[in-house]
Amino acid sequence: MNRPDLIRFLALPLLAAAAIPAVAQPPAVTPTQSAPPAGQVVLPPPMAVMPPPVPLPALSQAQDDWANEWLKSGMAEGLMARSKPTAPMHGQQLLNALLDRGRALSTGRVDTADFLEVWALRPAAFDPRPSLAKAIAEDRLPQWAASLTPPYSGYDGLRKGLATYEKIRDTGGWPSLSAGASADVVRARLALEDKSVTGTEPLTAALQRAQRRYGLNPTGLLDARTLTALNVSVDDRIAAIMANMERWRWMPRELPVNRVQVNIAAAVLTVFQGDEPVTSMRAVTGSPTNQTPMLSSNIHSIVVNPPWNVPMSIARKELFPKGRATLAKQGYKIVKTPEGGERIVQPAGPNSALGRLKFDFNNPFAVYLHDTPSRGKFSSYDRLASHGCIRLEKPVSLAELMVASDPSLSGQIQNLIDTNKTQRVSLPSQVAVYLLYWTAFASSNGTMNFRADPYDWDKLLAQKIEASSRRVDPTAVNSTAPAAKD
C-alpha cells in the first residue's frame, strides 16, 4: 500500500481511561438554607444504589469440563512459572476462578495498587462478569476465553516464545560459557535459541545474529557483552517474557494508528502512521538511577529554542556545588524564585541541554522529548544516560512529520530554529506518545529478541505476577521462584 508523502497525525485519545489524569472538580458548595422548624425530622439524602452484579448462569457439565481444562493454561499465558494439578472445581468456586482468570488475562495479574510509581501506564478497568454470563448462556466459553488476551502479534509472539524457553528449561537449560569456549561449544549454545545455526556456517555469522537479537554491536566476536548476554539464565529469560506479556496486558485493546512510541530499554523511538512503523531513530533514555517512566500522553506543542529550567534535584546535586563563578562562565543564570529561593536557568542556544527543540506532553513526571547538543551517545549501543527525559537523534525530522499537515509550518522548522527566538508551536493535531519498556519480543520468524533490563523491572514484575497468582489462583504452585519448574 502506498503511503502519502505527508504524514497526517490525528487527534486521538490516550491509551486508556485509566491512564488519563482525573479532571479536577470544583469544591462542593454547601447551599445556604434556613434551619428546619423545631420538631421537624430532616431525612438524609438518599444513598446511591449500586446495581446488583450480573448473575452468572450455572455451567452445564460440558462447560464445567471445558472450564477446568482451560484453567490449566495459566502457565502458557505467563501468569505463573509453575502450575499444579488440581481437583476439578465446580459451582461458585469454578465461576470465581473463571472471573479471576478473565481479569488477569485482560488487564494483568498484578493489581495496580502494587505498581511502582513510574509504571504509570495503567490498564483500563475491566469487569469480566457480563461477558462471562453471556458466554455461558450462549455456550461460547472458548470464544470468550480467546477474546480476553491482548489482540496483538507482539503478545502472541511472546506466548510462543515462552513455550520454547520452557522446553529449553525443562531439558536442562544451557551451560555457562567461558571466554575460551571452543567454536563447537559456542555454536551448540547459539543453536538452542537460533534454529538457523548450522555446523557449516562461519561462527561469526551466528554470533552476529545473536548480537542483533540482544541489541549488541554485531562484531561477530565473543566479546564480554556477548558472553554476558549468552550467560543470562533461561529462568531469567522466562521471567523477562512473563514480564513483557504482563505489560502487553496493560495496553488498551486498540492503539491509535498514528503515534510516537519509545522503547525505553532499547532507547529507540519509532513513528507509526496507519499502524505501520514509518521511521525510527536512536534515543537516549533515563539512566538506571534516573528512570524514564512508562506512560501514555499526547504531544501538544513544540518549543523552538527552549531555555532549560533546571529541576531543583539536578541543580542541588550537580550544578550548585560547582559554584556561582563556574556556572556563570558556563552560561547558566541564577534567578530568584517567588518564594525567595533561587533556581538555575540555562538560556536557549546551541549549547542548551535541550538543544533546539522540545516536545511537550502532559505527565506528572515532567519528562519530555528533546534535542541535545551532545551527539556522541547516539553512536553507542549503551544509551541509557539521561535524567529521565528522552533525547532524540533526529528531532527536526520528527518535528517536520508532526507539522506536515499545516501549510504554514510544513518545511519551516529549521527556519524557526534559525531565528534563535524561543517560541511555542502548537501542533495541528495532538500526537499520541507512548513510553514503553520492552525487553523481550519475537521476530517475524518467531525467534526471540532480548534487551538488557537496565531498571531491574523484569525480575520484580515476574515476582509480583507469581505472588499475585499464589494469592488468588487455585491452579498456581505455592513457590517463591519467579521462573523455576520441577
Automatic annotation (TrEMBL):
It comes from the Bacteria. PANTHER family: BLR7131 PROTEIN, L,D-TRANSPEPTIDASE HI_1667-RELATED. Residues 1-24 form the signal peptide. One of its GO terms (biological process) is regulation of cell shape. Residues 258-416 form the L,D-TPase catalytic domain. Keywords: Cell shape, Cell wall biogenesis/degradation, Peptidoglycan synthesis, Signal, Transferase. The active site is at H370 (proton donor/acceptor), C389 (nucleophile). This is Peptidoglycan binding domain protein. The keyword Cell wall biogenesis/degradation applies. Belongs to the YkuD family. Pathway: Cell wall biogenesis; peptidoglycan biosynthesis. Gene3D superfamilies: L,D-transpeptidase catalytic domain-like. GO terms for molecular function: carboxypeptidase activity; transferase activity.
